[in-house]
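Box S1 | Example of a co-folding query
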Amino acid sequence: MVEKQTDPGTRAAGSRIDEPTGTSTVGHSWDGIEELDTPMPRWWLLTFYACIVFALGYVIVYPAIPLFERATPGVIGWSSQGELADAIAAERTHQAPMRLALAQLPIEQLPGNPALLRAATRGGRSAFKVHCVQCHGSGAAGSKGYPNLNDDDWLWGGDLVSLETTLQHGIRHPGDDATRVSQMPAFGKDGILTPAQIGDVVAYVRTISKQAPASAQATRGAALFAENCAVCHGATGAGNRELGAPNLTDAIWLYGGDSASLTATIVNARGGVMPAWGRRLDPVTIKMLAAYVHSLGGGEAAPVVVAAAPPEAAHVER
Ligand code: HEC
Ligand code: HEC
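Box S1 (continued) | Returned holo structure for heme C
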C-alpha cells in the first residue's frame, strides 16, 4: 500500500535526516521505504571528472570531431593515415639498399648472395599473395589449367632466368612481343585426326604415362604420336620446354590424364594464358617473385645452355 508518494524529481517537504545513517532523505517513500540522498562515492566522481578532463584533452590533441571533409586535426597533427604513410616510407627507406642491389644484380647471380636471396624471397612471398594466388592458389599448388609451382615439373623451365622471363613476358599474353608462345593444334576440331585416331593416341598417352597397359590400340597410337605430336612433346613424350609442351610421361597433369580430359585436350587443344607481369610490376618485384617461385621446391640450377647457342643446342630435353 502506498503510504505517501510525492512527485519524483521534486524534493518533498517530508525530507528528514535518517537516524541510522545520518543522511538526509529526499522525501520519496514507497510502502514506508524512504529514499536516501546518498552522495556519489568520491572515487566515482573523481574518475568521472578525470574522464571529462581526458576527453577534453584528447579532443584538443588528436583528430576527434568529424566535420564535413575531415575530422578536427588535433594540435599535434597525428593521424592513423599519416602513421601508416610514415611506416611505409620507413620500410621503403629500409628496403632501398636491398632493392638497389637487386636491381643491379643479374638474377642468375642471386644464389651467390644468400642475404640478398633471402630478402628477395621474402619480398616475393608478399607479392605472390597479392598478384598470383587468385590463379595459382595460396600455396601455389595450382588447379586445373593453372600449374602447380611447388613441383619440379615445368612447362617453360624452373631456373631463375627462365622464371624471370616467364613472369616478365607472360605466356601467350596478347600484345607482348616477347611472350612465350606455342600453340598445340586442335587435332579434332580442325579435322587433323579422326575420332578413331584420337582414341588411339589417347590410349598411347595413357600407356606412356603408365596409366594403362600396352594394347593394340596404343600401338596404333604410337605411330600417330610420332607423326603428329613428337615434334613438340618429344619422341618419348617427355615434353619440350622450348615450346612449353608438357611432359606426358609423368603423372602430373595440367588438364587431367583421364581418357575424357585427354580427348578434350587433343580435340580442342588448350592454350593457357598467363599475364605478362612486366607491364604491371617493376623489374625488382619480378626478380623477387622469380626468387620466391624458385624457392618453392622445384627450383632448378641455371640451365647449361649458353645464351648465344643456336636454338637446337638450347633445346632442353627432360
Ligand atoms: C590470370 C591467371 C594467372 C595469374 C594471376 C598468374 N598466373 Fe602464372 N600461370 C597462369 C597459367 C594459365 C599458366 C600456364 C600457362 C600455360 O599453360 O603454359 C601459368 C604459368 C606460370 C608459370 C610457368 C610454370 C611452368 O611450369 O613453366 C609460372 C612460373 C607462373 N605462372 C608464376 C606466376 C606468378 C609468380 C604469378 C604472380 C605474379 C602468376 N603466375 C600469376 C595463370 C596465371
Ligand atoms: C605445336 C606443338 C604441339 C603439338 C604438335 C602437340 N602438342 Fe600437345 N601441347 C602443346 C602445348 C604447348 C601444350 C600446353 C598447352 C597449355 O599449356 O595450355 C600441350 C598440351 C598437351 C596435353 C595436356 C597435358 C596436361 O598436362 O594436361 C596433352 C595431353 C597433349 N598436349 C597431347 C598431345 C598429343 C597427343 C599430340 C599429338 C596428337 C599433341 N599434344 C601435339 C604443344 C603441342
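The radius of gyration is 37 Å. The beta strands are 25-30, 33-36.
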